[in-house]
Amino acid sequence: MNAAPASPVYRIPDPLPLDSGQTLEGCEIAYETYGTLAEDKGNAVLVCHALTGDQYLASPHPITGKPGWWERMVGPGKPIDTDRHFVICANVIGSCMGSTGPASLAADGQPYAMRFPVITIRDMVRGLVALLDGLGIAKLHAVVGGSMGGMQALSLAANWPERAARVLVIASTARHSAQNIAFHEVGRQAIMADPAWAGGDYYALDAKPDNGLAVARMAAHITYLSEAGLTEKFGRRLQDRAAKGFGFDAEFQVESYLRYQGSGFTRRFDANSYLYITRAMDYFDIAEEHGGKLADAFAGTEARFCIVSFDTDWLYPTAESRHIVHALNAAGAKVSFVELAAPHGHDSFLLEHDQLDRVVKGFVE
Amino acid sequence: MTLRPDLAAIAAHVAPGSRVLDIGCGDGALMAELETASGCDARGMELDGALVERCVARGLSVVQGDANCDLADYPDKAFDYAILSQTLQTATRPDLILDELLRVGRRAFVSFPNFAHWRTRAALMFGGRMPVTRALPVSWYETENIHHVTVEDFRDLAKMKGATIERAWFFANEKQIGAPAANWRAEFAVFELSR
User: Does A235 lie in the same domain as A288?
Assistant: First the structure.
């Protein structure tokens, strides 16, 4: 996008083949690393980011200035300990923080916009595997991810089983449900209904489809929180007023909060990237890629798996994690599974949670 | 680390290098022993999330699940041994669990408190109240033991299920005792079954 992230960028030497049958030429992957790669290159941990995440895992975000998105989990002496492990986090293709996406320039010197090929989670992982090749890392000590990051971890385990010894999947799923797709479609339609979207060709224009993107973020943000969490945080309390105003300002605190989340998001994210990445998630169904049977996706795997869900996560509920565990058991894989209690729904994986810390530490060590 | 006597008996009789499923694995003490001392590939199932967390934190492969329904996840004969320690008497349907044990494992170890131990009998006979004993320390209204079973009951169930009792061990006062009159003398029993 317009930002100039300071991350190192790896240019994939060969054209990247995509599930759609197309290829991506000159594909670039922006990434950050933490810790030191051991001489035998055996201590690498790949952390995969979620839909609107990026490579700024444990270092400040260059646009918002906020701390890394998982700084409480990754760092010296933290559950994913950078004193022991070499931790890699890369921006997925299709995104907008330095890796090739719809805002990147195509061969003709113009932004791809909607000419960017539709990608899948497996394509994102193909890009990550190319980066690992570039870094000379044959086998990861662990691949870790929450939400869409968990999908990438599962996809890596299913399609490149020799590339990771441990696979940690948090608050995720092996397929997008009708409800998941439905919420994403609301977001995409909000973006495309914004006149400033201009068929995706807004990069040279003054106005960006910020209104549409903000609404998309607002709708999605609701799915990341639990009803009880929202009630506890906002209830029916009014924002900066003593009585209802009989108008359509953000009168309720929850409205004000969502508007703030929405507008803040437009400062750091590209609307077209949001379209492409949500589409990739909607296409995600590992079983479908493997003849319809999820267990077949993991047949013969020697990796150890750990699957974690949260009891209040209604976006990717525990039943979806159990579905993965069932398949891994059927495949004879070494799998651990725990459902953690947390009040905050899907977003719990990003928040303070001592039990999660202990599970991650114990599994990744 | 010292294992509970019933677990120690099981650990001593699992063939090295076996694939093992420990159902109701608790904090993973038996699994850890089997992995480190016998080179087994041990998997666990445990209902209590806090215990699962402790197992995962010590590097064990444990799934949070309910033995009453989640054993259906596993293919037939996926394990050399299926172990059910001190859990049979808490199951909704112990007979169905036994079927599942013998389906997923080539052999099964089952340990349980013997409700026909003389202390229990005496407490019921002379006290006229549901026994609270060394082996069964919790009152009737809060115990997790909903299907009290005796050594002889278990032998009958095994027979009814067409299972062969390969071996059995009996314990009283934390020590192994002989088989004679086990139904009177044993506080705990461990059976190894096949089918």
Answer: no
